[in-house]
């Protein structure tokens, strides 16, 4: 019996994210035992309850019946022994069956009954568009596969990806959308983003185009509902997270080619005439949603004249730095300028 899966089910139950079937499993387990000596189900007592339940369930299954020495010899009843054996067998079937049910429900490609599943494999050699029941669209790259339900649950939307795909998810705050890949678990409400997974699962990547997503490592056995902020990263547009088998870490950074997030700001305000660099950087931050910092604060007073409307972010920074004798580097989710002086 898998203690880790057992503990995850209790967490899901406590968070209120368990399905009706899963709730029944926990309540059946709980009902078998002596509730008087069990802690209440709260965040603070979850570990204690888990340990107690786990210990008691195993003892109920494995513990032999304690012999009782009667004051007077009773009449032999062969059905009494049979009754106790049957009760033990029923308890074993209940716990084992419940565990198998939960394991099958939460396995990566078995969380929904297979009869409700649709699997699309792109063998066309070009991107393939897949329309989901909720109005969301997935652009499936060649060689990738997507497993999803014909109709999503009323409280969540789950899909299972192998390979690379672009997701444009219909917003539904009451039904969050989860993408399960081999290495990552992505949670969104309504947004667009890439999920890329290299062959042999050596590296995975999530790139956000619009909205916000939350990403966690699938290898930890997390439930589709995130249980701890420490187990996830939050991404916004022009940000990405990568995961490699070598370091086993989620690494957050700016995308290689940042795109314009605020098109109105880009169209109207990227032509400068004797504007201070403080004003220029403020406009670039609004346009690309990427923070820009300087080590030399005095450079903010320098002025810049130029047209950046046809340049990408890094081309714009190259031109600005050249004008004031500065340099820059990308550090995680920020751009940092070094040196520089007003000419």
TrEMBL record:
Keywords for this protein: Membrane, Transmembrane, Transmembrane helix
Transmembrane segment boundaries: 82-102
InterPro entries reported for this sequence: FecR, FecR_C, Ferrdict_sens_TM
One matching Pfam family: FecR
FecR protein domain ranges (all copies): 120-214
Record's keyword annotation contains Zinc-finger: no
Domain of life, source organism: Bacteria
Record-annotated Protein FecR C-terminal domain positions: 270-336
Molecular function GO terms recorded: sigma factor antagonist activity
Name this protein carries in UniProt: FecR domain-containing protein
């Amino acid at each position: 019996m898998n203690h880790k899966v057992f503990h995850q089910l209790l967490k899901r139950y406590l968070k209120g994210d368990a399905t009706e079937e899963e709730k029944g499993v926990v309540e059946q387990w709980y009902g078998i035992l002596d509730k008087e000596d069990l802690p209440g189900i709260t965040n603070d007592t979850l570990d204690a309850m888990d340990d107690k339940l786990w210990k008691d369930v195993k003892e109920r299954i494995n513990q032999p019946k304690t012999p009782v020495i009667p004051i007077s010899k009773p009449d032999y009843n062969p059905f009494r022994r049979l009754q106790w054996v049957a009760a033990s067998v029923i308890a074993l079937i209940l716990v084992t069956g419940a565990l198998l049910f939960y394991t099958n429900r939460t396995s990566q490609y078995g969380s929904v009954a297979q009869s409700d599943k649709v699997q699309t494999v792109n063998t066309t050699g070009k991107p393939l568009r897949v329309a989901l029941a909720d109005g969301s669209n997935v652009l499936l790259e060649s060689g990738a596969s997507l497993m999803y339900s014909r109709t999503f649950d009323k409280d969540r939307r789950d899909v299972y990806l192998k390979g690379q795909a672009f997701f444009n998810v219909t917003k539904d705050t009451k039904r969050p959308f989860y993408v399960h890949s081999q290495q990552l678990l992505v949670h969104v409400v309504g947004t667009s983003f890439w999920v890329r997974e290299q062959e042999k699962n050596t590296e995975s990547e999530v790139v956000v185009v619009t909205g916000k997503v939350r990403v966690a490592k699938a290898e930890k056995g997390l439930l589709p509902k995130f249980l701890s902020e420490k187990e996830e990263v939050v991404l916004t547009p022009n940000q990405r997270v990568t995961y490699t088998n070598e370091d086993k870490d989620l690494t957050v950074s700016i995308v290689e080619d940042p795109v314009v997030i605020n098109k109105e700001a880009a169209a109207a305000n990227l032509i400068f005439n004797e504007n201070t660099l403080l004003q220029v950087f403020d406009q670039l931050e609004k346009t690309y949603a990427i923070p820009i910092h300087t080590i030399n604060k005095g450079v903010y007073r320098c002025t810049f004249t130029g047209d950046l409307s046809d340049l990408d972010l890094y081309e714009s920074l190259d031109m600005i730095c050249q004008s004031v004798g500065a340099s820059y580097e990308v550090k995680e989710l920020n751009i940092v300028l070094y040196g520089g002086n007003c000419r």
